């Protein structure tokens, strides 16, 4: 099975981004939690992950707004 140039480019662009987001999620989710033993620990992990996701969505929205303000077509690269 061969990859086209467009598919290879997508993998080379989004692969490292997804890897860094996953590593950040692992680090951020455990912030403030020593062991997952109580319900409060699970709530803290869920709160950490939701905070991270909201931050990422906010960055994407701001990026699209900046693209719109400078005259670029707002897109996420595809």
Number of helices: 2
Q: Fraction of residues in helices?
A: over 70%
Radius of gyration, in Å, reads: 17 Å
Query: Regions with pLDDT < 50 over 5+ consecutive residues?
Result: none
Distance between the termini: 23 Å
* Major pleated sheet: none
Overall number of strands: 0
Structure characterization notes:
- The protein has a domain at 17-69.
- It is flat.
- Helix content is 72%, strand content 0%.
- It has helices spanning 5-29, 39-69.
- The chain has two helices and no strands.
- By secondary structure, it is mainly alpha-helical.
Summary keywords:
72% helix, mainly alpha, flat, 0% strand
Summarize the structure.
With 78 residues, this protein is mostly helical. It is 72% helix and 0% strand. The two termini are 23 Å apart.
How is the secondary structure organized here?
Layout: H1 5-29, H2 39-69
């Amino acid at each position: 099975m061969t990859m086209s140039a467009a598919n290879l480019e997508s993998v080379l662009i989004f692969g490292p981004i997804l890897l860094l987001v996953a590593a950040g999620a692992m680090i951020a989710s455990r912030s403030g939690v020593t062991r997952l033993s109580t319900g409060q620990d699970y709530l803290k992990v869920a709160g950490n992950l939701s905070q991270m996701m909201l931050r990422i969505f906010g960055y994407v929205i701001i990026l699209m707004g900046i693209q719109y303000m400078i005259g670029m077509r707002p897109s996420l690269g595809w």
